[in-house]
Amino acid sequence: MFHLLQTNVTQTVSDASSAGSYFPVGIQLLFVVGMIGFLMVVTHLLGPKRHTSDKLQTFSSGIESHGDARQPMAIKYFLVAILFVLFDVEVIFFYPYAVNFRGLGWSGFWAVLMFVAFFLCGFIYIIKKGALDWED
Amino acid sequence: MFSLEGITKSLQDWLYLNFNPTWALVIECLIVIVLAIALFAFLGLVLVLMERKVAAHMQIRLGPNRVGPKGMFQTAADTLKLIMKEGLTPDGADKFLFNLAPFVVMIVAMLILAPIAFAKGFQIWDINIGVLYVSAISSLSVIGILMAGWASNNKYSLLGAMRSGAQIVSYELSAGISILCIVVLSGSLSINEIIASQQNGWWLFKGHIPVIIAFVIFMIAVTAETNRAPFDLAEAESELTAGFHTEYSGMKFALFFLAEYINIFIVCAIGATLFLGGWMPFHIGNWQDFNHIMDYIPSSIWFFGKTFFLIFLIMWFRWTFPRLRVDQLLNLEWKYLLPISLFNLLLVTVIAIFGWHF
């Protein structure tokens, strides 16, 4: 939207990768927090406040709720989350390569091919182990 | 010719002429804030109306048509109603996390807006790692959703949040790899440089088949990441009521709703920037005359045209495909999209090393 903010800051702080270049996003963060806080407070003041015990129950489609939701969940969800952490780190490793691969040429490509091969070994292992099968 | 760049430039010159630099900066910040709020309000109102109109016309009905001409003020009326509603916090809920979750979701949605180039030279924040910033911040949105689902202390919410968590993190992998394809071809992470590299044609057209595959995977992945049908398991209304935001009401619900639509806009804007050239007009190689005619259409119209086309595509998906089951959803990602996008990335790398792209 505004290049102006950027140009101003880079004029005063000549180094583009310094903390000064993050100034616009800092402003944005502050103002987002302010705006949402303002909205929440205003709607809290505007809206009616009539609490009844029925209204404050957790919703369960009209029938009486049994217990609360602090119960064990299927382990598969956590497994997916852990696998994501591993694979996402590998995707992040691609970023430096993607920017620099022209300079690295073929030797860099073979190195990445080896990296992908290791990646695939892990991938085949989790498939064979049945980590992603949902029917028990 | 109409250009936003000219307007901002003359405004900046005027500010620096009449105020000292510190005050000029403060005034610019205020202008940016006002514009960002206006953009948010506009997007929220337009996208919700567009969703309802598209849905209606796909089902051969009229959609909202009572408030204002052709129902144009329907969303404004709905927003007003939501502002006046009571915002409940259920007794069983974790009060602090329950109220924090809408903040997290909205903050994430608004922070990703910063590096997007809306028109030529019209961008809040031109950072050299724009693409990395977008993929880093967008992975935070899952925290807000899990927080909302867990803090509600409702079984529907919890199930919705867990599904959504698994789904968002899984599809982020192939979305990230498809974005990397374009980073490989353009050799830069900066949004502006990626757009500049599409001066003689958009990547979708000059990148051969691998880029088309990357684009298709990107669209599937972002549909899943924004919890849209056919991947709307997180809020599957026929089985989970409303998923992770079942317990939310009033403005807190509206914030979730707004964040969802802002997210759709943002992912479509990113897709338009990477694959369809952002604000870059439609250029064909070195056909100078043709390119020159295309340059007469303002860059902001190109950007919003492409973005809204992609948004329309995502709305179209919703009324075309039936909802998947959670195991089918994760199978699609882990057993098909992830290996395909990985090999696709290697293919793109080979193409870029040989210089086969146009």
From TrEMBL, chain A:
Task: Summarize subunit and interaction data from the UniProt record for this chain.
Answer: NDH-1 is composed of 14 different subunits. Subunits NuoA, H, J, K, L, M, N constitute the membrane sector of the complex.
- GO CC, any one term: NADH dehydrogenase complex
Which residue spans traverse the membrane?
25-46, 77-98, 104-127
Protein name (database record):
NADH-quinone oxidoreductase subunit A
Bilayer topology annotation: Multi-pass membrane protein
Q: Which reaction does it catalyse?
A: a quinone + NADH + 5 H(+)(in) = a quinol + NAD(+) + 4 H(+)(out)
Predominant localisation class: membrane
The record, for HAMAP family, names: NDH1_NuoA
Role played? NDH-1 shuttles electrons from NADH, via FMN and iron-sulfur (Fe-S) centers, to quinones in the respiratory chain. The immediate electron acceptor for the enzyme in this species is believed to be a menaquinone. Couples the redox reaction to proton translocation (for every two electrons transferred, four hydrogen ions are translocated across the cytoplasmic membrane), and thus conserves the redox energy in a proton gradient.
Q: Name one GO molecular function term.
A: NADH dehydrogenase (quinone) (non-electrogenic) activity
**Species name:** Flavisolibacter ginsengisoli DSM 18119
Q: Which InterPro entries match?
A: NAD(P)H_OxRDtase_bac/plastid, NADH_UbQ/plastoQ_OxRdtase_su3, NDAH_ubi_oxred_su3_sf
Q: What does the UniProt keyword field contain?
A: Cell membrane, Membrane, NAD, Quinone, Translocase, Transmembrane, Transmembrane helix, Transport
Which Pfam families does the UniProt record give? Oxidored_q4
The record's subcellular location field reads: Cell membrane; Membrane
Record EC number: 7.1.1.-
Q: Which family does it belong to?
A: Belongs to the complex I subunit 3 family.
TrEMBL record, chain B:
**Catalyzed reaction equations:** a quinone + NADH + 5 H(+)(in) = a quinol + NAD(+) + 4 H(+)(out)
Q: What is its main location?
A: membrane
GO MF annotations in UniProt: NADH dehydrogenase activity; oxidoreductase activity, acting on NAD(P)H, quinone or similar compound as acceptor; quinone binding
What is one GO cellular-component annotation here?
Answer: plasma membrane
How would you describe this protein's topology in the membrane? Multi-pass membrane protein
Annotated membrane-spanning segments are: 23-49, 96-118, 130-150, 171-191, 203-224, 253-276, 296-316, 336-356
- Which key words are in the record? Cell membrane, Membrane, NAD, Quinone, Translocase, Transmembrane, Transmembrane helix, Ubiquinone
InterPro entries the UniProt entry points to:
NADH_UbQ_OxRdtase_su1/FPO (IPR001694), NADH_UbQ_OxRdtase_su1_CS (IPR018086)
Per the UniProt record, which EC number(s) apply here? 7.1.1.-
Task: Please verify whether the record's keywords include NAD.
Answer: yes
Q: Under which main EC class is this enzyme filed?
A: translocase
One Gene Ontology BP term is: aerobic respiration
Where in or outside the cell it occurs: the entry states: Cell membrane; Membrane
Classification via NCBIfam families: PRK06076.1-2 (NF004741)
* Assembly information from the UniProt record: NDH-1 is composed of 14 different subunits. Subunits NuoA, H, J, K, L, M, N constitute the membrane sector of the complex.
Q: What does this protein do?
A: NDH-1 shuttles electrons from NADH, via FMN and iron-sulfur (Fe-S) centers, to quinones in the respiratory chain. The immediate electron acceptor for the enzyme in this species is believed to be ubiquinone. Couples the redox reaction to proton translocation (for every two electrons transferred, four hydrogen ions are translocated across the cytoplasmic membrane), and thus conserves the redox energy in a proton gradient. This subunit may bind ubiquinone.
> Which protein family is named in the record?
Belongs to the complex I subunit 1 family.
Protein name according to UniProt: NADH-quinone oxidoreductase subunit H
Which organism does this record belong to?
Flavisolibacter ginsengisoli DSM 18119
- Lineage, uppermost ranks: Bacteria, Pseudomonadati, Bacteroidota, Chitinophagia, Chitinophagales
